């Protein structure tokens, strides 16, 4: 009688673990299958090719997208960066 009870407990535990693994797998597949958000409306972002240099520490930044054709320079080290090239 004791052996049957232990077997039933093992079967119930296996069913519960299988159900939990199935739910986790389905949730992961849902996360992976969600579509990417739509891009912003046309004209909202513009393609630019601007390279900036921080005069204090020497860090360089390349800006490829901006909201305006001539955007304000980014700030680094609490100062505006210098424009070094427009491609």
Structure description:
It is elongated and about 85 Å long. By secondary structure, the chain is of the alpha+beta class. The protein folds into two domains: 1-34; 46-86, Rubrerythrin, domain 2. The chain has one helix spanning 2-33, and strands at 46-53, 60-66, 75-76, 79-80, 82-86. The mean pLDDT is 88. It has a three-stranded antiparallel beta sheet, with no helix packed on it. Strands 3-4 form a two-stranded antiparallel ribbon. 37% of the residues lie in helices and 28% in strands. The chain has one helix and five strands.
List the helices and strands and how they pair.
Elements: H1 2-33, E1 46-53, E2 60-66, E3 75-76, E4 79-80, E5 82-86
Antiparallel strand pairs: 1-2, 1-5, 3-4
């Amino acid at each position: 009688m004791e052996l049957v009870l232990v077997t039933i407990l093992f079967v119930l535990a296996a069913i519960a673990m299988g159900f939990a693994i199935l739910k986790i797998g389905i949730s992961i597949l849902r996360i992976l299958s969600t579509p990417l958000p739509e891009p912003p409306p046309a004209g909202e972002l513009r393609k630019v090719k601007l390279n900036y240099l921080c005069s204090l520490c020497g860090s360089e930044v390349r800006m490829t997208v901006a909201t305006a054709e001539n955007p304000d320079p980014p700030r680094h080290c609490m100062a505006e960066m210098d424009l070094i090239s427009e491609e």
